[in-house]
Design brief:
alpha/beta, four-stranded mixed β-sheet, globular
């Protein structure tokens, strides 16, 4: 099921900032999701999630926090995000034992449901841990499976159009298409990249290889 955002309040996005992974760092990432219009039909929207990352000095395991001061994350969304971070780290041969990750949804009265934000969060956390970050104007909708693939989600046609309306440059979608979504129509000049694996998605999202080539 695709992530659904309910509510109508808009908050100005937070400017992205990436610093050394050994320090506190934060990043505002675009999430492509679904909401319902006035006719109760699903439409695609883009909302920002503020991601805070810190690499600690202890080894007490991954600490994942969902801040509730503004918008909320449903239990299903929280669980999907945790799995995505852990699975993206495994795919990157990284250890989350000293990571603290906090997420804020800066839209009062709104809630993120579903799982489709999880790949974007998981890949962005790995990017911050590597001292990198997503390319501006790019996002991905999907999950991360146990075997390191990008899992399919629903509502892809609506999300593509929503990303186009919000002027994203490129949207990454799962290579495995949800048959219930019907025909896929791509707006003029909109770049849509089907991706299969975490490694492929990371390259498309950040412009960096998950594993740098040996010299």
């Amino acid at each position: 099921m695709a992530a659904i955002v309910v509510g109508s309040v808009f908050v100005q996005p937070v400017t992205a900032k990436v610093v050394s992974p050994t320090q506190f760092s934060h990043l505002s990432i675009p999430i492509v999701a679904l909401t319902l219009n006035q006719s109760q039909r699903p439409i695609g929207v883009v909302r920002d999630v503020v991601l805070h990352f810190q690499k600690r000095y202890d080894q007490e395991g991954l600490r994942l926090r969902f801040r509730r001061m503004l918008g909320k994350f449903s239990p299903r969304a929280q669980h999907a995000v945790q799995l995505a971070i852990e699975r993206a780290a495994v795919a990157a041969n990284m250890n989350t034992i000293d990571w603290t990750v906090s997420l804020t949804f800066p839209y009062p009265g709104m809630t993120i449901y579903g799982e489709s934000l999880s790949a974007m969060v998981g890949l962005s956390v790995v990017a911050l841990a590597k001292g990198e970050g997503p390319i501006s104007g790019r996002s991905i909708t999907g999950t991360i499976t146990k075997d390191g693939h990008i899992g399919k989600v629903g509502g892809v046609p609506q999300k593509i159009f929503g990303a186009y309306q919000q002027k994203l440059n490129r949207i990454l979608v799962p290579e495995e298409y949800h048959t219930g979504d019907g025909d896929l129509s791509i707006p003029f000049l909109m770049h849509v990249s089907p991706v299969r694996t975490v490694e492929q998605a990371y390259l498309e999202l950040t412009g960096h290889r998950l594993f740098p080539s040996a010299h």
